Amino acid sequence: MKRTGTRFRPRLAANHYDAIVIGSGIGGLTTAALLSKLGKRVCVLEQHYTAGGYTHSYEREGYEWDVGVHYIGEVHKPWSMIRRVFDVISDGKLEWAPMDAHYDRIVIGEQSYDYVAGRDEFKAEMKRHFPAEAVAIDRYVELLSEVSARVPRFFAGQALPRSLGMLYARLRRLWLPAYFFKSTREVLEELTSNQELIGVLTAQWGDYGLPPAQAAFVMHAMVAKHYITGGNYPVGGAIRISETIIPLIEAAGGNVFTYAGVDKILVEDGRAVGVRLHKDGFEIRAPQIVSCAGLVPTYTRLLEQQVAEAHGLLAPLKQVELSAATLCLYAGFKGSAAELGLPKTNYWVYPSHDHDHNVSSFESGQNPAMPLIYISFPSAKDPSWDAHYPHKATVEIVAPTLPQWFAPWKGSTWGKRGADYEAFKAQLTEQLLETLYRHQPQLRGALDFCELATPLSTEWFQWNEQGEIYGIDHTVQRFDQHWIHSQTPIKGLYLTGADTVTAGVGGALMAGVLTATRMLGWRGYKVGKLLKDWKPAMPAGEAAQVAG
């Protein structure tokens, strides 16, 4: 079984760390790696058997799946910020492979639309379907670029001291356009009245978990701009992310421990001073503590209630909602991706173009049709797959679900939930597979193994509240919560990850950058310098030519 990180043993812990990071998701690993690059000794504590959070991979029955990395944008551009951060924290060892030019296929009823890599190519494809909407399509793509250019200013307060950062968040309405504070539907209906076009343009809403009337436009625009020049996949699978980052942390004297669930953050005299582990109550201390466990779990479970209340951390949580819960089917098929004709394209399948209605009718029970089914073909995306798993292929199918469906088994132990639970999962599995076979009929009869993860699985492995996969919801109201900051009111305690910036690998990655910057105080400029000065190591052949 593939695993990253070191299984925790008390004797392996160092006597001194400069910082402790709770959780090894990409936000936590990024924070730890940047601090390590700047000479800090960091201890990362992960409750799971492997590091990586949603960027980890797992094996079962001779197959391997990535639990959260389906595609990443902009890393094919060496000058992009996300690529630069990945290069710095992996010492340039993380490689990327492009997906097909048609990276996302949107299927609405019987009609399909492709998202094509490239701004001009994307616009041309949309205009082919909606020739009367050329002006709206052009303006929409312009808006994506405008938002992208201003996003650093939108989140800049996260790198400032908490009091200044909160003031910055209150004042940013003065210099940011109004569309930063509107819903996606509000903004798009100012461009066009064509509801079918709006449905197509917002068809990636599953990447952030909210349909257009609920989702903040800034969130939608960041995702759409992130992918508009194409999707990419890590060569070797998502496990390569933690595999390439961890050695850098260890080289600085730090550790990334697994089986190291944290019970409580220790707070003494108003300052975070360490953590207590579940295992034997073992304590590890450091002057700075970072939680990548999520905003709500950190404030409600990792801190003693009286500590959280004394610092005013619990009441503001009423202003945010938890994001969607999902089902994820991991399926293995006999035959390689090439033999089975699998694409390097994601499928987004919808019952109609009205995503808001699809979601509301599903949640109310009026319509049992899943409002979205997402299909990914990871073995087709990874050029190194066949060398490790010849004549095998994998598929992942993700769909929204309702936590209340699984209430009868709430609090039960993973793998021991009984026959009724397994029967319910089998019913859901069949529904998801039928959708897959409708779009890839050649796979029928080739299924070798499948396993369904439910919100209970997410709660068990990711320590979430109700199986949510994106932390707190990405509504307009969420982005107006000035108190959400990388630096908490408790001295020495910081937050990182999706709830600090946004969900998604890119959002959590940038949260790691901002948190590391804030932790360093006035020396935070060194993080920016580290990223600016990064130069990839020259390949041996090129070095020889230069020397000659």
UniProtKB/TrEMBL annotation:
Pfam families according to UniProt: NAD_binding_8
Domain of life, per lineage: Bacteria
Transmembrane segments: 12-35
Keyword annotations from UniProtKB, A to Z: FAD, Flavoprotein, Membrane, NAD, NADP, Signal, Transmembrane, Transmembrane helix
PANTHER family: AMINE OXIDASE DOMAIN-CONTAINING PROTEIN, BLR7054 PROTEIN
Listed name of the protein: NAD(P)/FAD-dependent oxidoreductase
Lineage: Bacteria, Pseudomonadati, Pseudomonadota, Gammaproteobacteria, Pseudomonadales
